[in-house]
Amino acid sequence: MAQPLLSYKSLEVNAINNQNVTDMHLAEKVPYGESNMEIIVWLSEAVAKNAVTVRRIDKVSELRRTFSDINHNVQARLNENAMTNKRVTEIASQLQSIIGMCVIEVLSYHSSDEVYLWQRDTPQWTSDERAKQAFQQFSEKLIRIEGMIMSMNRDTAHCKNWNGPAEFP
What we know:
By secondary structure, this protein is mainly α. The chain has helices spanning 3-6, 23-28, 33-46, 59-84, 94-109, 129-154. The chain contains six helices and no strands.
C-alpha cells in the first residue's frame, strides 16, 4: 500500500505538519489499544521507518529567535515613542478588553488548522497521482480501522465496563 509513496525520493513520507507532529506521533496518541497497535505497526512498517529525516524544531534556537523578535519590536516601539515624543498613557477600555478576551477564548476552542492522520494540510500537497493514490489507500485503511473501533464501541458485550457518561438515579 505504501510502496508507491516510498518509491519517490523527493516525497517526505514522515513530514511534520504545522503542529510539529508526524503521523506516527498522531497514531501513538490514539486512545485505543488493539486498533492503536494496528495503526502504529502499519505506519512503522510501511512509512515511518523509511523517512530520510524528521525535521524537528530546535527549541533553543526557536526561543532565541522569539526573544530576538520581541526585543526588536520593543526597540522599534521605543524609537517610535522617542521620535514622536508621545507615550502610551491609556489602557484599553474595559469593553474592548472583554471583547478581546472573548474572541481569544472562542478561537482557542475552534481550531481551524486541525489535521487528522488521514488528511493533509492542503489538497495540493503533491502533484504526483501515484502518491495521491497511495495516500488515498492509506486513508481508506484508517477509515476501516475507525469503523472497526466504532463497531466495537457499539458491542455492549465486548465493552461491558464501558457505558459512556455516568447515569445518576
